[in-house]
Amino acid sequence: MSTAGDPLSLFRLDDKVILITGASAGLGMRFARVVAAVGACVAITARRRDLLESLADDLRAAGTRTLPIVSDVADPEQCRAAVDLVVAEFGRIDGLVNNAGVGTSIPALRETDEAFRRVIDINLLGPFWMARACAPHMPSGSSIVNVSSVLGHVAARYPQASYAASKAGLIGLTRDLAQQWSRRRGIRVNALCPGYFETDMLNEGRDALQAMIEQECILGRFGVDRELDGALLFLLGEASSYVTGTTLTVDGGYAAT
After folding, report:
1. Does residue 201 register a pLDDT over 80?
2. DSSP class of residue 223?
3. Does the predicted model carry a pTM greater than 0.85?
4. Of the listed 163, 196, 242, 254, which one is catalytic?
5. In order of start, what are the domains of the chain with their CATH numbers?
6. pLDDT at site 157
7. Residue 206 pLDDT
8. Is the dihedral of CA 22, 26, 29, 30 positive or negative?
9. Is 254 one of the catalytic residues?
10. pLDDT value of residue 200
11. Counting beta carbons within 10 angstroms of the beta carbon of residue 200, is it exposed (0 to 12), middle (13 to 18) or buried (19 or more)?
């Protein structure tokens, strides 16, 4: 345990093994760099090999022990195989960041069955497959962070039925896994709920979205990636040792309006 004289140690992850999905771009790439900066060993998964390998090269150059794995979280067999590779390399998993996700903005009457299922497969079933595969290899004191969304709490201003359903479902999954695993296994499970952040997912319809954020969000702007760093480290580390089954919303006040 840290002492009162060293509170910053609560946010360190020295020699912890952290597995991050969807790490080839956007918030996932940032998350990998952040946990590496505070001492973690990093396993990163994504579907895009070239971007994943580039990130792994950067992390290794900075002295971080890194394992890149090409994997699709929508496939439970690939999830199990990825976890097996992490355990073979590091021996355990101390933290899982379920970050992989996709978003759509399609009116419900036009969204195809296949498109809706694909969003649910990646955003909701994927985190379940990964958490289920990781849990037997996570020692007491480990942490799972499910990256949900503020749209799991409030209605979107744009048509996003599949995305909103998946993210609300992920919050429900977070609560239930916390109830099952926190006392019995010592694994804390929480959800991180970002608002609208500057990522590749914002490229489509950006101007209209920015106008909406300026009007509807208390801070009146998009978030930038560094503004999730503290929340992520809080949920992964000892600082949140008495926090489980809850959500941490980082949205610039969007849900409060």
Report:
1. no
2. B
3. yes
4. 163
5. 7-250 (3.40.50.720)
6. 80
7. 76
8. negative
9. no
10. 67
11. exposed
